[in-house]
Amino acid sequence: MQEKMTGERMRDIVGFALIVRGIIVIFCLFWLSEAVQAEEVSIQFRGITLNANLEQAQDKSITDGVILITHGTLAHNGMEIVSTLQQLIKGKGWNTIAINLSLGIDNRHGMYDCAVPHTHKHEDAVAEIGAWLHWLKKKGVKKVILMGHSRGGNQIARFASEQDDPAIKGVILIAPQTWDEDGLSINYRQRYKKELQPILKKAGDLVDAGKGGTMLTHTDFLYCENASVTAEAFASYYAHDKKMDTPFLLPSIKKPVLVIAAGKDNIVPDLEKKISPKADGKKIQLVVVEMADHFFRDLSAEDLVDAITDFLKDKD
User: Fold this and answer.
1) Got the DSSP string for 5-66?
2) Kindly report the CA angle at 153 between 149 and 159, in degrees rounded to 5?
3) N or C: which end of the chain has fewer CB within 10 A?
4) Distance of alpha carbon 213 from the chain centroid
5) What is the mean pLDDT of the chain?
6) What's the sign of the alpha-carbon dihedral 128, 76, 190, 221?
7) Dihedral (C-alpha) 268, 110, 218, 124: value to the nearest 10 degrees?
8) How much is the pTM?
9) What is the pLDDT of residues 245-280, one digit of tens each?
């Protein structure tokens, strides 16, 4: 009797081990499949390396079309909203490439280190977006959707307003940057307890004198306290420029545009108000995700992707 029970137990143990091994094999195959579909790619541009994360949907080739995603201020392509978007959109059957803007740094990864002197300019992104579009076209891609979040939304809108490339089939702007000169000064004062205008005048005077490369030390800049920043970089981000206001750019974009606003956005709270008069429901569409904050966290990410895939229906 004891031998019979031992034999049965051994069969149970072996059976359980086989099941576990099967689960492990399936998991490994799934992981390998996902790994194969995700790839860091890089290109050379003006003497530095630019990198991006390419995610291919199941059974899709890159030539089936790609959504090019640009991140926000001093951020990167691995931040939560971007990585979540890539995974959810891939599940909907679309390829994506999330680029890292160089911000003047070779082969940059991760958030910008505030201790590194700032030499980058807001408009640098336009040329880098163009470089990635060129790379995609060389790979045989004939259908590209441009997508940007926050400041990246403004940079995407700038590019699309200047470059009416036949490969671009649509533009998606997620909580894109708005801009107001008085509001900018107020925000700077609230954040740094000092006035913006004296610093901006100093930077502008240096640029006008041909000394834009002069480093302004101990200067509060964007999200970085006590930073070092060139005069031309400071002026680029803070000087009066209507193109910094994304709604201003929309009439110049010839391709269909989807603007997605967050109902609880405390970073660009005026977006819906500014876009509504321009949204005709055809060339310019506006969707408001009521419960979302600026980064569309948690369940709001699903609502965000639903809005995106609705916009993409006639662009497959």
Assistant:
1) HHHHHHHHHHHHHHHHHHHHHHHHHHHHHHHHHEEEEEEEETTEEEEEEEEPPTT--GGG-E
2) 145
3) N
4) 28
5) 91
6) negative
7) -70
8) 0.88
9) 999 999 999 999 999 999 999 999 999 999 999 999
